[in-house]
Amino acid sequence: MCSGDNGRRDLESAADGLRRLTDLLLRVTDDDGGPTAVADELDTIARMLDEQTDDETSGVRDPVSGKGNAIAPPIDMDIDDSGNVSATGLLGLPYQGPKTLVHGGMSALLLSHVLGAAGTVAGEHAVVQELSVRYHRPTPLFTPLEISASLTDPAGDHARGSIEVDGVTTVSAEARLALPPQQ
Asked: Which of 74, 77, 127, 164 fits as disulfide partner to 146, beta carbons 3.0 to 4.6 Å?
């Protein structure tokens, strides 16, 4: 479907557009017939894309940090040479749980992802085998988040991470890690 840098940029641009549409769809009222017209247009787009699909999988499609996956939350993640992970982002309505707050499951998903990334070996993120999450306080929507994770032992099989808002921890987690299974 997409090849090379241009194809990747096109996929990422399309995913960004779908993220915007998802956010807008969550805000629209249904009393003027607009959603029906949108649904018809989206069906047309879906038929067009269906003709261009393949079974390729790559990191650009990761559901947490894949820029080409429209369900991936808008976060930017960096891993330093020591395996310390830092990520920033701002989550909107598609990630809402209780009104005005990030869904707790989304917080756990983000932490599981960065904890696995902290165990990166030869480009492969570790697999989280056990995850313990502690919710300290609600995480608000539409507020810049700082997400971090690092290994906590020399063997590299345990990591700790957190989500912070304005320097205050809202969620923390610890994980037991393993290398991904060989296929």
From this structure: 164
